[in-house]
Structures are given as structure tokens and as C-alpha cells.
């Protein structure tokens, strides 16, 4: 697009007459015609030196700008002569000084006047302003003439305009009178800009095309009148006139018809009723009546509308009311709130500039404006009243004051009737129109936060005053009167009060004296509802969780009321019942906050031991992700209470919490004992609902510890049981465990299938934790299979998902991202992700953070040739590792020792890695371990090394596993060295022998003969650097916690180091160790 002309510019504005009707009746023809029109516009604009702002214009309209007025006239002639049937263009030409909104759009009075000029025209007609006519009168194109159409008022513009029509022999030149809105209309002049509502305008206009009576409904202050007036002004050209009738000042029903007659300048006629006079006058007229503010005169308004519509077939009525008129054939349309992100903010900014000239939206204040608009539900009246306060308050002060909005939001237009001048007056007016029963229900609805359903309303608001069977009728009446909003978009009908209405209803509830009773009913109803989440049911549990999440605002209200009344037991019971929701819906922090608030009010005399024990256990579950080992104290306290109560179901739940917290704080053996006892209790009483949760976490803890074969038996039983009793959440955890077990067993295709099965349920279940777990697993699968783009993308997806949960999950996600980057060969990116992983996990989960070092951070350090750092990390990981993780840590130490020239130590660690694989059944590091072993022995046992490499390559072929690119060069060197040391025949024979081994045979092969070579497995020569640091500090008399603090590891890691040291040195106590350290002057 060429640069838009500036200065004095002639604008051509055009649109298609009746485009909505054409699209409805001739859609295929219109598609072709619009394509042709676009081509014609481009061609004629270019031919006549015009520039088209592509982003300017709404719907089917377009704009072309010209530096010379004569070019604009010539262009208009060509456009009207073009074969565009069934399209007929309305064209307006106006010349004036132009303003740019940006480099692609015009703004200001010149383009506004051009648009209003165009609106006067009919299809096929081109009209010019007096300014443009004067410029082109002496230089018209051949055969073009101008006809003076007189001076006409333009809608919303104060100065009328002299109008001329462009004529040409090839064009149709006979048209009806111009579509003059003003002059045949008494619509009120608007002194402020109309903001947004384009979608609503189009919808109402289409509804007016199809119905003769359209009623705009909505709460007071929703913008009904302004929208109706604006639509009427835009539609005026489709009617012979528009008449605006305001009923707001009228209080008596008999005055409705008289007001309409007076507005139409009809005199009284003796012997004839006013309604008859109106019927006779309107019978043959093509008019649009705007009947505004009907809510307080519904019956009279309905009678008048029925009477005049029956006789006047070309009459249409656009009414506004807080509830429908209830007339046959009436089309009602509820005026929605303004969208918060754009139109509501634009309205606030526009009105704020009227109050304070220098006001503008900036990056710093936009969020505050959005919050104001959100708190005011996007209601135009409330937003305008709030914007007026910028004269004396900052935006932050306005936000803070909205808790008392009825006091703050005053000072509306003095020309409005009193009930439209303040927010309170507007709502007072709606409340005054209610019946007694409607007022009772309205105030009781104030206890609901957010949305609610009919069942809840019947239970909480229904009583002797309002029978439950009457609630639906009363609720419907409140919705008809725009005090209750109905939402059926989710497949289930729900209701809500706008926050402004709710605050007003709360005031009324407080005045009624029944607030405590209603709020207690509300609390009891929702506490009972979520208690079902803990009950063993056969079907529908997932739906119950979804229902609980839909009611989170109400649950929060019930919780806060319990605390406010010092009913700690109710608060704890409610919070504990929501344990599945806290887990699955990414609300761990919210759950912890509720538990912390309720437990801080705990008084032993006021809370039953069973409720307290359950709360401690569920709290420990959630805290495990955040505080690590600190949760064990709560879990053990709960266990003590549960054992005293001898309640099998409670004890099983508490034992499950103890198992979970133990497993996730590094003690898998202790966790196993807790899970075993919990499972026995659940089986004894046939509680399959509890059993699947026990099995799910039992398998999860075992596979997290790196023991896939142990985990598999629990996960598979859990999957079978979960499918039987329809526990989708428990089944997803078991499937995730199966997927991670498959990874550790190098069964990548099976793992991917499990993760995809979990992800298939995520959208419906909204289980964010499972979504993260599945994404993490898929990333590892892709990384091991060499699908590095997919691995990186899935890891980044996991990072995004984890940000909404907690730093624990974010740490895990960054760990998988580091592995994906290593698989792609991007060491720098891997190092950065590893650093994030350590930062997010080390503070609360030091053992887990240490374990992760061997998965990715060590590799980056080795690639960077920083062997001291690599050894420090590997030894730290070794002290906290079991199973799969122990194999990885040992492998890392072997590689480091080899690089340092410590061949004996390197081989010892490699064999320790093999032993860890054999012990745990975790096969995924096997190929790397075999290749490392081969590299260590190839110079003195080439045949054996070749066999081991053959076994490693066969394993990779069977599983599809790749090697991290950073280790390719070392592998190639091993193969080349063997190739040079052996004859081709021997090399091939040895390789093939290894390739023919099964996985179990390959493990057994490398383990055989290990004792034939000397290794330092005991004595001081076998002590690692990390272990030596522990010896020195223990010799200085420091305890485990002090040593852990000095070495930045966990006390459990210190104890593991000590156990290894005692075993290697043949010692049994810290005293003996201190003596030996002193004797060696360490």
C-alpha cells in the first residue's frame, strides 16, 4: 500500500446497500461479487491515483483517499459503472483536512462527515459535499453533471451539509429522497462518544429486520438506552422516520399512550381514545418507534405495543426494559456487559478524558483500568461513574474503593431522572419493582459467590417463606427482570448475580436479620456436596470433581464463613474433602493456603481427632511438593492419632500419606512399609476405592526411586482396578507410572502409548498434574529416540504447564528440557536448563535435586571438561541415588575417573552401574554402560570389548535408543581402536557374538569375571572425594545436619555417605571413624 495522502484530502467512502439481506438470500453470488468488487476497487483506485487504507472501514464498507478531488469523482463514476450485480454501492465524497490515527488509518471530523454523507445515499447513488462540489465544478469528467439536493442535517453532527448528486448517462440517476435521519427523527442528541458494541449493533439490526417488536433487556446501567438510540439512528434510513418515546419520567400507566401521542405531535380528538388516535395515525406509516424505559409500566407498554402493531403493518418498535414486555411476537435480546479487555477499557478511558483532560492509557495503568472494569462487571453506567472519579482519585484508589461502590459511584448526569444518576438509585429502582417473594429470594442469592445451580438455590434459599417448588418460578422472574444472569453454555444451566447486584443484595440480606442463617445453610450445603468426593462410589467421580471446581467460589465462601465463625472442624473437613481437586486441577497452593488458615485456628477441644488427623495427612500430601521433608512431622502426628482411633479407613489414608511423603523425601524403603500396611487394611475391608489410590502412589514412589520391576506389579494391578471401579484419577496415576516404568525398561513405544492415553483424557478432566507428568515422560521418550525437535517442544510445553503448578514441577520440567537439549547436542542450553532445575528443587527437595544431577548436569560439566565440578555433582548424586539413578551416577563417575586417568576407579564404577541395572531392572542406561566398559578394557581385552560393544549396539537396535552426541566421538574411537587391534574376522566374530546375546545375557556376561581384575573396593583407597569430606567433618565432631549444611546436601545424603564409609573401612561407629581420621591426620 502506498503512503496515505495527508493535508487536504478528498475521501471516497462506500458501502453495499442491503448487504446482510444479499448474503442471506444469495450467498454464492455474493462471494463471487465481493471478489469482483475487490478487484475493481484496486484497479480504479490505481487508475485515478487513489490510496486505499486496507484496515479502514467496517463490514462491507471501504475508503479511498485522493490528493485531488477531481480524481475522486472520476473514480466514483468508474465504480458505479462497473458490472457488480447484485451489488449496488452507496458512495459519499467529502474534502477536508485529514488526521492520521496511525500510518494505515484516518481519524477525525473529515472522515466522520464523509461517512455520514454516504449514509444519506441509496444503492447506486453518489453524493458529494458542498466543499467537494465547489472544487470539481469546473473540472468534471466528460458527461458528468451534478444536481443540487439541498442542505441536510447529518446524524450526530451539529452542522448541516449542502449535498449534490453525481449524474452520468450510463448510470441510474433517479432516486428517492435522501435517507435523512435527522428531521424525521427526534432521537436525543448524544454528547459523548458511542464506544464499541459493533457486534451487538449488527445483531439488533438483524433482529429488527426479522421482528417488528424487539425489546432490549438488561440490568440498570447496562447501556440499553444508548444502544437502542444508536441502532435507531443507524436504521433510520430503512424507515420513513424514527420517533423516540421516553417513559422514564412517567409514573402512571394511563399516561403511556398520551406520552406517545404528544411525542408524535398528535392532538386530542374528542370521542376517540388516545390509543385509537395513535392507531389511525400510524396505520399507513413506515416508522420505527423507540419505546424507552418500559420496566415500571410493563402492562401499559405491552397494551400500547399490541394495539398499534396490530393495525400498522409497516411499524416497528424497539423497546428497552429491565424485563420483557411479554407480548406475542416479541423478540427479546439481553444487552451484555462490555468486553473487559477492549470496549470496557475504551469506555473508561474516553469518559476519564472528559473528567481529566490529560488522562491516557499507559502500560503502567492499563491493568488497573481492566481491574476496575472487571470489578464493575463491564457495566457502562458503573464504568462511566468510576471514570468520573479520576478527577479526584488515582486509579488504585478507585480500585480500593469499589468495595463500597454505592457510595463512590455517584454523580451521574443531572439531566437524567434521579434513578439513573447514581448506581444505588438504579438498583433501588429495580428492587422497588419486585414482589415480596422476589425480594426475599434476591437477597438470599447474595450468599452465592460466582455462579450457582438450581439445586443449590432450592436447598439454601427455599424454606417456609418460599417453598422449594416455587424457587424456579421466582428465579425465572428475577432473570426476566435482569437481576439474575443465566448461563447455559456448559450444557448445564447456572445462574449468577452481577457483583454490583450481589453487593446490593448483601446489604438487603444484612438488614433482614437472616444473614447468619442463610450463610450457614450455604456452608452446610457445599460441605456436604464435596464430602462425596471422599466416598467410595462406582461411577461419576470425575463429574463430581468437575462440579466441585465449578463451585470453587461458593466453596471458598463456605470455607471463609466457617473460619469467621471459628468452626474449624467444618473448615478442615471441607478442605480435606477437596484433596482430589487440589491434586488434579493444579490447585496445590490454594489447598495449602486453606489448610494453613484452618490449622492455624485449631483448638483440640473443638475439632474431632479423626477430622484433625485426616487434615494433617492431606496437608502433608500437598506440602510434600513444596516443603519436602518438613511434611513428615505432620504425617507422623496424623498416624499417631489414627492408630489410637482404630478407624481402618482413616488409618489407611494416613498410612498412604506417610508412604507418599516418605517416598518423595528420599526413603523408599520406609515408604514401602507404610504402603504395605495401608494396602492390607484396604483389602481387608474390600475398600477398592482406597486401594487404587494406595497402589497408584505405591507404584509412583517405587518408579521414582528407580525400581521399575517393583513398581510394575502395583501399577498394573492399579490399572486393572481403576478400570473396574471407574476411578479415572487413580487410573491416570497408574498409567503415568506404567509409562515411566516403560522408560526405565527402555520400552519407549509402550511408554509413549501410556502417556498419550493419559493426555487423551486431560482436556475433559482438567488434570493439570497428569498433563505435566505425561508431557515430561513423552519428552524423555522423544529424547531417547533421537526425535530432538519433538523432545524440546514437549519439554517446553511441560515448562509452560508447570508454571501454573509449583516450583517442584517446574524443576522437573527443566530437568527434562536439559535432557532434550543434551540429546540435540546443545550443551549451553542444557547447562542453563540444569541450572534452573537445581535452583527450583534444591531448596526444598535436596535429595531429588542431587539425583537429577546425574541425569543431565554432570553431562554438561563433562562436555565442558570441568572434571572437578562433574565429580562433585556425580558424587553428590551417588549419595542420594537408588535403582536407575544409582546406575546413572555410577556411570558418570566412571566417565569422570577415566578422563582423570583413574582406570581402576573408572572400571569399578562401571561395574557398580551394571550391578545397579541388574538389581533394579532399569535397563535404559545399559547401552551407555556397556560402551563405557568396553572403552575401559579394550586395550587389554579386545575380544571381550568387541563382544560388549556388539551387545550394546544390539540393545540400541532393539530399543531405538540414541547416544548423546557428546559421546559419539569416544564411541567411534573405541570402535576404531578395536578395528586396528583385531583382524576383521575376529572383530566381526566377537561383535556378532555380543549382538546375539539377550539383554539378560549381556548383563550376566559383563558381571562374570569382574573379580578376575584387581579393584579397590575397600580400604581408604576406595573412599571417594565426597566421602572424604564427610570423614573430615565427622572427625571434627559435627553432626549430620551440620555436615549437610556445610556440604550443601541433605542429612539423608550424609547418612548414606557414612554407611558407605563404614562398609568400606570395616567400621561400625562414628567414634571409630573419628579415631581413624585423627590417626591419619585428616
From TrEMBL:
Database matches in Gene3D superfamilies: Nucleotide cyclase, P-loop containing nucleotide triphosphate hydrolases, Tetratricopeptide repeat domain, Winged helix-like DNA-binding domain superfamily/Winged helix DNA-binding domain
GO annotation terms (biological process): cyclic nucleotide biosynthetic process; intracellular signal transduction; regulation of DNA-templated transcription
Keyword tags: DNA-binding, Transcription, Transcription regulation
Domain (Guanylate cyclase): residue spans on this chain: 10-118
TM segment ranges: none
Residue span(s) of domain HTH luxR-type: 1016-1081
GO MF term (any one): ADP binding
Protein name: Transcriptional regulator
Organism this protein belongs to: Mycolicibacterium llatzerense
Amino acid at each position: 500500500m502506498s503512503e496515505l495522502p495527508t493535508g487536504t484530502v478528498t475521501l471516497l467512502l462506500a458501502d453495499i446497500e442491503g448487504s446482510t439481506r444479499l448474503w442471506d438470500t444469495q450467498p454464492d453470488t455474493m462471494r463471487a461479487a465481493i471478489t469482483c468488487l475487490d478487484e475493481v476497487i484496486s484497479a480504479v483506485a490505481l487508475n485515478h491515483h487513489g490510496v486505499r487504507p486496507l484496515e479502514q472501514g467496517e463490514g462491507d464498507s471501504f475508503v479511498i483517499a485522493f490528493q485531488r478531488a477531481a480524481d475522486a469523482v472520476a473514480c466514483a463514476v468508474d465504480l458505479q459503472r462497473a458490472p457488480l450485480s447484485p451489488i449496488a454501492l452507496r458512495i459519499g465524497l467529502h474534502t477536508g483536512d485529514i488526521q492520521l490515527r496511525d500510518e494505515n488509518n484516518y481519524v477525525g471530523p473529515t472522515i466522520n462527515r464523509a461517512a455520514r454523507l454516504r449514509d444519506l445515499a441509496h444503492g447506486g447513488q453518489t453524493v458529494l459535499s458542498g466543499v467537494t462540489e465547489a472544487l470539481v465544478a469546473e473540472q468534471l469528467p466528460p458527461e458528468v453533471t451534478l444536481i443540487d439536493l439541498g442542505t441536510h442535517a447529518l446524524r450526530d453532527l451539529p452542522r448541516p451539509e449542502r449535498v449534490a448528486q453525481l449524474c452520468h448517462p450510463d448510470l441510474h440517476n433517479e432516486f428517492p429522497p435522501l435517507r435523512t435521519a435527522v428531521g424525521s427523527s427526534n432521537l436525543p442528541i448524544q454528547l459523548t462518544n458511542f464506544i464499541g458494541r459493533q457486534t451487538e449493533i449488527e445483531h439488533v439490526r438483524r433482529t429488527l429486520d426479522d421482528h417488528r417488536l424487539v425489546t432490549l433487556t438488561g440490568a440498570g446501567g447496562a447501556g440499553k438506552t444508548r444502544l437502542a438510540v444508536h441502532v435507531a439512528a443507524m436504521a433510520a434510513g430503512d424507515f420513513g422516520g424514527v420517533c423516540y418515546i421516553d417513559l422514564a419520567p412517567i409514573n402512571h400507566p394511563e399516561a403511556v399512550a398520551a406520552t406517545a401521542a404528544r411525542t408524535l405531535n398528535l392532538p386530542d380528538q374528542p370521542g376517540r381514545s388516545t390509543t385509537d388516535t395513535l392507531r389511525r395515525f400510524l396505520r399507513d406509516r413506515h416508522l420505527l418507534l423507540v419505546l424507552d424505559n418500559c420496566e415500571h409500566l410493563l402492562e401499559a407498554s405491552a397494551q400500547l405495543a399490541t394495539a398499534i402493531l396490530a393495525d400498522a403493518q409497516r411499524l416497528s418498535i424497539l423497546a428497552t426494559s429491565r424485563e420483557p414486555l411479554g407480548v406475542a411476537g416479541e423478540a427479546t435480546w439481553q444487552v451484555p456487559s462490555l468486553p473487559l479487555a477492549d470496549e470496557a477499557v475504551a469506555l473508561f478511558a474516553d469518559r476519564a478524558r472528559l473528567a481529566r483532560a490529560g488522562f491516557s492509557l499507559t502500560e503502567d495503568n492499563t491493568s488497573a483500568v481492566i481491574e476496575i472494569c472487571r470489578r464493575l462487571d463491564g457495566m457502562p453506567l458503573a464504568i462511566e461513574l468510576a471514570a468520573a472519579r479520576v478527577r479526584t482519585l488515582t486509579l488504585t484508589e478507585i480500585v480500593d474503593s469499589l468495595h463500597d461502590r454505592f457510595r463512590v459511584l455517584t454523580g451521574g448526569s443531572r439531566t437524567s431522572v434521579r434513578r439513573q444518576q447514581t448506581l444505588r438509585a438504579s438498583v433501588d429502582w429495580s428492587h422497588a419493582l419486585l414482589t415480596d417473594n422476589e425480594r426475599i429470594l434476591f437477597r438470599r442469592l447474595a450468599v452465592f459467590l460466582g455462579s450457582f445451580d438450581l439445586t443449590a438455590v432450592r436447598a439454601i434459599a427455599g424454606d417456609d417463606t418460599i417453598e422449594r417448588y416455587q424457587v424456579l418460578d421466582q428465579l425465572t422472574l428475577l432473570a426476566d427482570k435482569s437481576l439474575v444472569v443465566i448461563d447455559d453454555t456448559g450444557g448445564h444451566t447456572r445462574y449468577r448475580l452481577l457483583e454490583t447486584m450481589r453487593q446490593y443484595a448483601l446489604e438487603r440480606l444484612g438488614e433482614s436479620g437472616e444473614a447468619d442463617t442463610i450463610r450457614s445453610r450455604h456452608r452446610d450445603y457445599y460441605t456436604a456436596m464435596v464430602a462425596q468426593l471422599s466416598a467410595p462410589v462406582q461411577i461419576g467421580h470425575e463429574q463430581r470433581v468437575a462440579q466441585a471446581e465449578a463451585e470453587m467460589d461458593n466453596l471458598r465462601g463456605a470455607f471463609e464463613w466457617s473460619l469467621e465463625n471459628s468452626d474449624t472442624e467444618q473448615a478442615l473437613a471441607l478442605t480435606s474433602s477437596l484433596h482430589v481437586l487440589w491434586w488434579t486441577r493444579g490447585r496445590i497452593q490454594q489447598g495449602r493456603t486453606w489448610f494453613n488458615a484452618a490449622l492455624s485456628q485449631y483448638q483440640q477441644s473443638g475439632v474431632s481427632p479423626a477430622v484433625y488427623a485426616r487434615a494433617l495427612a492431606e496437608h502433608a500430601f500437598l506440602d510434600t511438593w513444596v516443603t519436602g521433608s518438613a511434611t513428615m512431622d505432620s504425617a507422623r502426628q496424623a498416624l499417631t492419632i489414627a492408630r489410637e482411633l482404630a478407624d481402618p479407613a482413616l488409618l489407611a489414608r494416613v498410612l498412604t500419606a506417610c508412604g507418599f511423603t516418605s517416598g518423595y523425601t528420599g526413603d523408599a524403603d520406609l515408604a514401602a512399609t507404610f504402603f504395605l500396611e495401608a494396602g492390607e487394611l484396604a483389602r481387608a475391608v474390600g475398600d477398592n476405592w482406597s486401594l487404587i489410590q494406595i497402589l497408584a502412589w505405591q507404584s509412583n514412589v517405587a518408579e521414582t526411586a528407580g525400581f521399575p520391576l517393583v513398581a510394575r506389579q502395583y501399577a498394573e494391578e492399579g490399572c486393572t482396578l481403576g478400570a473396574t471401579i471407574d476411578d479415572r484419577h487413580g487410573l491416570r496415576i497408574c498409567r503415568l507410572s506404567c509409562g515411566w516404568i516403560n522408560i526405565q525398561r527402555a520400552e519407549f513405544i509402550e511408554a509413549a502409548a501410556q502417556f498419550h492415553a493419559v493426555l487423551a483424557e486431560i482436556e475433559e478432566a482438567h488434570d493439570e498434574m497428569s498433563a505435566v507428568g505425561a508431557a515430561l515422560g513423552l519428552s524423555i521418550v522423544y529424547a531417547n529416540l533421537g526425535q530432538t525437535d519433538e523432545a524440546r517442544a514437549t519439554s517446553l510445553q511441560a515448562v509452560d504447564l508447570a508454571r501454573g503448578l509449583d516450583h517442584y514441577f517446574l524443576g522437573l520440567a527443566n530437568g527434562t528440557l536439559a535432557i532434550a537439549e543434551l540429546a540435540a547436542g546443545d550443551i549451553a542450553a542444557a547447562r542453563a536448563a540444569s541450572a534452573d532445575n537445581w535452583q527450583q528443587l534444591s531448596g526444598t527437595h535436596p535429595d531429588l535435586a542431587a539425583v537429577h544431577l546425574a541425569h543431565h548436569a554432570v553431562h554438561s560439566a563433562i562436555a565442558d571438561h570441568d572434571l572437578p565440578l562433574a565429580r562433585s555433582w556425580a558424587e553428590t548424586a551417588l549419595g542420594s541415588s537408588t535403582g536407575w539413578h544409582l546406575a546413572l551416577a555410577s556411570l558418570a563417575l566412571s566417565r569422570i575417573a577415566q578422563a582423570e586417568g583413574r582406570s581402576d576407579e573408572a572400571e569399578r564404577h562401571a561395574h557398580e552401574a551394571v550391578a545397579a541395572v541388574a538389581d533394579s531392572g532399569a535397563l535404559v542406561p545399559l547401552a551407555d554402560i556397556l560402551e563405557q566398559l568396553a572403552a575401559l578394557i579394550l586395550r587389554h581385552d579386545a575380544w571381550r570389548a568387541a563382544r560388549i560393544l556388539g551387545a550394546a549396539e544390539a540393545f540400541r537396535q532393539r530399543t531405538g535408543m540414541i547416544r548423546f552426541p557428546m559421546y559419539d566421538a569416544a564411541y567411534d574411537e573405541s570402535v576404531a581402536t578395536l578395528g586396528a587391534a583385531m583382524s576383521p574376522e575376529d572383530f566381526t566374530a566377537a561383535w556378532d557374538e555380543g549382538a546375539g546375546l539377550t539383554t539378560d545375557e549381556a548383563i550376566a556376561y559383563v558381571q562374570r569375571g569382574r573379580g578376575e581384575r584387581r579393584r579397590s573396593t575397600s580400604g581408604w583407597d576406595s573412599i571417594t572425594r565426597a566421602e572424604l569430606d564427610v570423614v573430615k567433618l565427622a572427625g571434627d565432631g559435627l553432626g549430620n545436619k551440620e555436615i549437610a549444611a556445610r556440604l550443601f546436601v541433605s542429612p539423608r545424603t550424609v547418612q548414606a555417605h557414612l554407611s558407605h564409609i563404614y562398609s568400606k573401612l570395616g567400621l561400625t561407629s562414628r567414634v571409630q571413624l573419628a579415631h581413624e581420621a585423627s590417626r591419619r591426620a585428616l
